[in-house]
Specification:
The chain is mostly helical and about 140 residues long. It contains 6 helices and 2 strands, in the order ααβααβαα. A two-stranded parallel ribbon has the order 1-2.
């Protein structure tokens, strides 16, 4: 969420407008956290959610980490998503008495697909940033 607002923030030289855009970015991330919270069902899922945002958005959202956490949602940057997921899987595996390998395989396949989609999105954002820099040069 809010990648277009980050681009506007970086393009702006007005401190008042920058603060306004930062607030809008935080608001968009909080809204996404509330959306993610709807999918948390302790009977079917773990009792928390993860929201992954571009590193540039994450860097601007340090002030709302506690608010996101109160929703049982963890805010992570794209660059930290994979280590975070590995930690979650390791914790779950250590805490579990019995492991359904078929479910674990399905979850890992799902994560792999999601990570591939995220990488493609990261690559497209980086390409767009490079094109913008080239056009502005």
């Amino acid at each position: 969420p809010a990648t277009h607002l980050v681009e506007q923030l970086h393009a702006s030289n007005d401190p008042v407008e920058q603060q306004k855009l930062k607030g809008e970015i935080e608001s968009a991330v909080l809204s996404k956290a509330k959306e993610v919270k709807k999918y948390i069902d302790p009977n079917m899922t773990v009792n928390f959610g993860i929201i992954a945002v571009p590193d540039s958005v994450y860097d601007l959202c340090s002030g709302i980490q506690a608010d996101v956490f109160r929703s049982n949602v963890m805010l992570v940057s794209y660059s930290m998503l994979f280590p975070c997921l590995l930690l979650v899987f390791q914790t779950i595996l250590k805490a579990s008495q019995s492991i359904d390998l078929h479910k674990l395989d399905a979850y890992l396949q799902s994560v792999q697909g999601s990570l591939k989609a995220l990488q493609e999105e990261i690559d497209s954002v980086k390409l767009a940033e490079q094109v913008t820099e080239y056009e502005n040069a």
